[in-house]
Design a protein that fits this description.
The chain folds into two domains: 296 residues, 3-Layer(aba) Sandwich (Aminopeptidase); 121 residues, Alpha-Beta Plaits (2-Layer Sandwich), CATH 3.30.70.360. It contains 14 helices and 18 strands. The strands form five sheets. A six-stranded mixed sheet has the order 1-2-6-3-7-17. Strand 4 and strand 5 form a beta hairpin. Helix 5 runs parallel beside helix 13 and helix 12 packs across helix 14.
């Protein structure tokens, strides 16, 4: 489908004109420390959800806007507050579901931030603050796009819209599946736009066509019934730390590539991406070499990885001459697109059991698996998105894989198998999502918002 040039220009101008107000509203959202983890103030999540609902209500296009929750399966506990807004399609037009999340990661060590994490700060063409990129910018890309198409199309806006702004994505989306089931009819759509990914660079849009899955769990290693003096028993008794270090080392080969039998690799081409770019985007220190083999992007997009993300150990300042009887680590495995995450976890678990040194006892707990995702790039929605990206950014988009995971997409596929899913985003490679000094590249945000407005306008011209 093509969009009438005069209407396209009007939508672009309206979206452009709305950038200052979108950024102001984004700043207001960033000021709310909406962290879903129970150790933090949960009233901030309610405040955040209410603020998002007010923004959607203010567009004037929805039949219904509500803050709601779903039960966490297997418990009596309710999930975190989400926002659901809907309007019915007219005249045979498609319905589009727009997803983002209003919860954010904890700030971590605030001393590592150059400006306060919940005080939005403009600096060198970027907006700094926790959630400025992940994913409150995704919310405002949706809101800004809706504002623009509503302003231009007016009564000609026949597109059906459902907006789902989740409140616990950073805390495991525990009630996500139940929320989809509870609200299936309201959310049912022809196209789903998930604004929670990244772009090729700050100037080039990316359409995410693959995501790795994940298998995260806690491993506890035990070797002793109680702690013992390291001088009196050291050299004859294996402590848990020794056993854990030796065991974890078996997970990788000498190149740093994963050495676990049963973890799959996807065979797919990747764009050119050199080591200098990797160093610039990752902060790899001088003299430290990359790990793995084959093309750099194949290692990130199409191969498994294993990372130790947490370790219970005696702090350095509290160290004593003691043999530790047990220790626990959190292991995060990323799973190649196409492999079942439960299957991958079973492979890692079997490897660890087979390589446990000195007969160390192993326990596995807190297992959390999420499947990978591969996009069918032959659908008409992908064609429309690429065209909108080209007009909004002024350059052709790149099909990208993402090394990270968005496990809830498999829930979307299961609940809405007929929907075409587009994974887009507002982040560039320097956004530092989840890290200190998270930031949003302002030009990338502008282009993403304009592109989404053009996409909605194009879809408004389609019939299904």
């Amino acid at each position: 489908m093509t969009l009438d040039l005069s209407r396209q220009e009007a939508v672009q101008k309206a979206a452009d004109a709305g950038i200052p107000s979108a950024l102001a509203d984004l700043g207001s959202l960033v000021r709310i420390p909406s962290i879903a983890w129970p150790a933090f103030d949960q009233t901030a999540l309610v405040k955040s959800a209410d603020a998002v609902a007010a923004l959607l209500q203010g567009t004037g296009v929805f039949d219904s806007v509500a803050v709601t929750r779903a039960r966490i399966p297997g418990t009596d506990e309710m999930g975190q507050p989400a926002v659901l807004a809907t309007r019915a399609a007219r005249n045979g037009r498609p319905t589009v579901l727009l997803y983002a999340h209003h919860d954010v990661q904890p700030p971590g060590d605030e001393a590592l931030w150059d400006s306060p994490p919940f005080e939005p700060t403009l600096r060198d063409g970027r907006l700094y603050g926790r959630g400025a990129a992940d994913d409150k910018a995704g919310i405002m890309a949706h809101v800004g796009a809706i504002r623009a198409v509503s302003e231009v199309l007016g009564d000609d806006l026949d597109l059906g819209l459902a907006v789902f702004i989740e409140g616990e994505e950073e805390y495991g989306s525990r009630s996500f599946g139940q929320f989809l089931s509870d609200n299936a009819e309201a959310l049912r759509s022809d196209v789903i736009v998930v604004a929670d990914s990244g772009n090729w660079d700050e100037r080039t849009p990316g359409l995410t066509v693959s995501l790795r899955g994940n298998a995260r769990f806690t491993l506890t290693v035990r070797t002793l019934a109680h702690a013992s003096h390291s001088g009196m028993m050291g050299g004859a008794v294996p402590d848990a730390m020794l056993a854990t270090v030796k065991l974890l080392a078996t997970l990788w080969d000498d190149d740093g590539a994963v050495a676990v039998e049963g973890l799959a690799t996807r065979d797919a081409d990747t764009p050119d991406y050199d080591e200098a770019t990797l160093r610039a985007e990752s902060g790899l220190l001088e003299g430290v070499s990359p790990i793995g083999r084959d093309s750099i992007l194949s290692r990130i997009w199409n191969k498994p990885s294993i990372t130790i993300t947490g370790w219970d150990a005696t702090p350095v300042e509290a160290a004593s001459n003691t043999l530790a009887p047990q220790t626990s680590v959190v292991i995060s495995a990323r799973v190649a697109p196409g492999q079942d995450a439960e299957e991958a976890f079973a492979a890692v678990q079997a490897h660890l059991r087979a390589h446990a040194p000195f007969g160390a006892q192993l326990d596995f707990s807190d297992v959390d698996c999420g499947d990978s995702f591969l996009v069918d790039t032959g659908g008409w929605a992908v064609e429309e998105a690429r065209a909108a990206f080209a007009d909004g950014y002024g350059v052709e988009s790149v099909d990208v894989g993402i090394g990270g995971s968005i496990p809830f997409i498999s829930d979307l596929v299961r609940e809405f198998p007929a929907a075409q899913i587009l994974v887009t985003g507002v982040e560039d490679p320097h956004a530092r999502a989840h890290s200190p000094n998270e930031s949003l590249h302002l030009d990338t945000f502008r282009n993403a918002l304009v592109s989404e407005a053009l996409l909605l306008a194009r879809l408004n011209d389609r019939t299904v």
